[in-house]
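User: Show me a protein chain along with its predicted structure.
Assistant: Here is one chain, sequence first, then structure tokens.
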Amino acid sequence: MRIIFHGAAKEVTGSAHVFEVNGKRILLDCGLYQGKRKEAFEKNRQFPYDPKSLDAVVLSHAHMDHSGNLPTLVKGGFDGPIYCTEATADLCSIMFRDCAYIQIKDVEYINKSRIRENKTPFEPLYSAEEAVLATNRIVPIPYNKVTKIFDNVELTLTDAGHILGSAFVTLDCKENGNRRRLTFTGDIGRRDIPILKDPYFPGGMDYLITESTYGDRRHPAREDVKIHLAEYINEICQRKSKMIIPAFSIGRTQHLVYLLNQLFTEGKICQVPVYVDSPLSNAATTIYDRHVECWDTEAIHSIINNGKPFSFSGLHYTESVAESMALNDKPGPMIIISASGMVEAGRIIHHMKNNIENPDNIILIVGYMAENTLGRRIAEKQPEVKIFGQMIPLNAQVEEVAALSAHADKYEMLDLFERNRPEQVKHAFCVHGEEAALNHFSGCLKEIGMQQVSIPSPGQAFDLN
């Protein structure tokens, strides 16, 4: 058995790890890199492994930094099965097509200036047709079902509580008479967050690949979330200004809509119109409605009492580009929730361009912003940010509600592992984190008894004995 780390190794995006067992090569995740445009552009096109050499892919969840490069993989010759949960399969079916569409539109926009400057035009990563080909390779399996994917290789997916359909990936393998269990966390969710069930970690692993995004910090108390949201919303009501919220289409958007619904119902915020300006978010919300089996007791209770978690007076789901552009001319107060979550593509970039110069507006950061993304530069409150090649003053008020994160923090992750006999883990690998988080969290894993802990570099391979 052998594991080779290719993506999200000493960084946060582009999750991809190749696991070799019994002559088979299994890719764990196939995510898009996000960050420096030129570097991400090349990384997303040039795989460090031959797609044709892979026998299967297992997806932890549908976020683009974990699944978004699968159509490129299929385009490159991969023709095996893609295993994931049923909800992840449904989300990927809309995400791949949406990603293809956004790439085409963004490239068209950027190429206008490149052509004027006599530069070589960019090309999209993949087409809508190639997105469909990737979707057709997906094999959905239910949570908690042991599935034989190869001789002496069994796959089990358990609820990770991060987004709808997210899973801890467990591979039980027998090779040369040895039985070993490898668990890959994908992204670890949190206990007691709205809508989703709590994470269910399988335990009993010999080898662990774990995310480390918030491995060096503690999230603020959850009860502060609605208080801060209400405070900022009432501010824009007084100013008659706009709140712009970059949010992942899957997970964060539904979480926000759910909380805003509660705040309106409880009378804690003014009657401000809310626009979810992302066709993907709208489609994903429909899928959230469909997969009630993933919901927690509170969300199900709202349905039993004739509630609609993702619908309330004043909430509007925009679809067309014309509807999106019309928001520029509408006066405040209003809230615009749009994707992408790291402000790297899609309609949110246009909303930032049109609103960040106004000091009365509020930019609300509700999730992790990777290094070298536009979202990170805004979160850092840099005086100017480059949008579509133009430097624009960042005058808007920038606020952050860290407790809205769907990633477990250091203490939540350690609690999950400590309850599952960490001393049995022969070797743990920390991925999906920045340097400080990786270093700190790897030390924490040693402290709770894991036998060996490594922070792999891109391309580094480890034999699993």
